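ok here's Sec20 C-terminal domain-containing protein, seq below lol
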Amino acid sequence: MKNQSVLDALSQLSDSIKLTFQLISRLSKLSFQPGSTPLQGDGDVRIELSHDIRDALKHHDDTLDSLRQEIEDVVEFGTHSQRRRDSLKDRERARIAAQLARLDEDLKQYVHNDPSLHDCFTDKPYSARSQFRAAQLSSKRASEAAKQKEREILFASLQQPTETDSTSSTPDPLAARRPQPKQLTQDELLINASTDVTSALRRTHNLLTSELSRSRFAQETLDQSTAALADLGERYTDLDSLLSNSKNLLGTLVRSQKSDTWYLETAFYILVTTICWLVFRRLIYGPAWWFLWLPFKFLLLKPFYLLLAVFGITGGSSAAVTAVSSLSSTISTQPTIRLQPSASGDRPTFRRGMDQRPANAVPVGGGGAKAGKDGQPQDPSPAGSMSQSLGQMAEASREQTQPQGEESNEAKGHKEPQRRGDGTILQERGDIPRNPKKKMWEEDVEAPKHQMRKRDEL
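and the structure came out like this:
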């Protein structure tokens, strides 16, 4: 609703309220003359005026409520729009809201200044109805007083004796034209009083009927409110169950989140540890070994051990001599184990290059993983170490004992029988056929199969 329409509506409402209060004042000052109202009923003027005032007050209440709500909406909208003054539209809305608030204040001042409208507006909404009720009672009392006065006049006229001029012989020519007062008997007076009581009882019955209808309407409203409250209680019960289920779900989610967080943190720490280990092993371990440990070992530890050995603190020389002597005695006492050909009589086949290897070398995995350039096994110990010196002394003692054994075998001059590794003497086969179930290694057949198997594995 625009501000001009709100202002026009307020002006019309003010004029209507003034007119209504004029009608209430007229009803309160209404006076009746004896005989102006019928005795069996109420006055038509008073009833019509009361109906008009009642309808006007009801209309004023409805209009006042709608205007108050409209003004509150406009003012609230204006206060919210005052926060945003960026556009011209917002400033225009703020100006309209301020004008409506100003009109509302002017209307309140006008109402407060006008004593005739002070009781019927926002301060005392039921004062107009109370004044209307007082005006109705005063007009009813005036009507009842007029009726009572009329009854008294009629009753007094009935009790006065009729004076007749019996002495005059000449009749009055105007006596027949005079209105003869109607004489009411006692029964007629009783009937009139009963009629008044009946009309009063009827009015009371009508009032009771209206009150009963209002009570019935209130009862229906109460039943509807009870049903609405029951429905609302069920909805609140459903809401409580929903909230409890939501609480349980949130608890489960929190617990699962804690466990998931623990798992993720553990996996993260393991990953970080693995990455640190890989970085250390791939990038730091090799340079640290070559540039930190080996210089520290050869520059500090070796001279320190050498000084200890020189001064005899550690006893390294006597321990080395004892170890070399025990190793040489052990090698000299143990017999040499020689491998003889198998019992089949056939000599084992050798691959190319195997005859160039030393007799004491044992080939492993591709010719020996730690073989040197000359085919000899490479010593993994550092040069000049205690273990390397012990190994050289053991090899020297073995070379000294081996030629002596060969010379003793040649001096005997006879061929020794062939023996197995466990010492069993092998005899000549002669005419004994070879075992057909015993598998023999055929180099021409098995070697290609072995190469194909290795190629498939790769």
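fwiw Residues 315-339+386-400 form one domain. kinda neat tbh
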